[in-house]
Amino acid sequence: MIASYSLLGLLGNERLLLINIGVLILHSCDSQPRPGTGIPATSVQKQPVTDCSIALKFINDYAEFCTPKSPPVSDSDWVGRNPLLTDNFKSAHKKMVDDAFRHDPELGLESDPIFDAQDFPDKGFELVNCDTGTGYVTVRGKDWPAFVLVLKVARQGGKWLVDGAGEVNIPVERRRKR
What we know:
By secondary structure, the protein is an alpha+beta fold.
């Protein structure tokens, strides 16, 4: 009887030892520093949440800008001053416009590269999809649901900004077919 009690006590100690090891492992994976232990916190990098509302705000602002008014301002000036756009977007748009006017000084672009079309929905756009993994955002016209447009958001300077829209920085295979 004493031998079996000792054996049970040993098994109980092994179980307790295993539980203690498990607790130690779990605590060593904690990302918080242990005050007074000299053990630094592990750096766990959290991916910033993609802000797709920036794309929707930009495209609705652009649609409003493109609605006739006076005095007119050039698209390139508006794009160049827009704080919702990445530097990459601004330079790609400028290059598209400049190249088109060099090629055909009278006509320039045959369509609006941001809308990837000649016309656009009068009442603006609504969000259809936001792919937080890739930053691609799909919108459609409020009064023209068949008008679908793809934009892209990216982080620049710690902020989410629009990095592509329509033909600007959007690969052909990502654009919506019309």
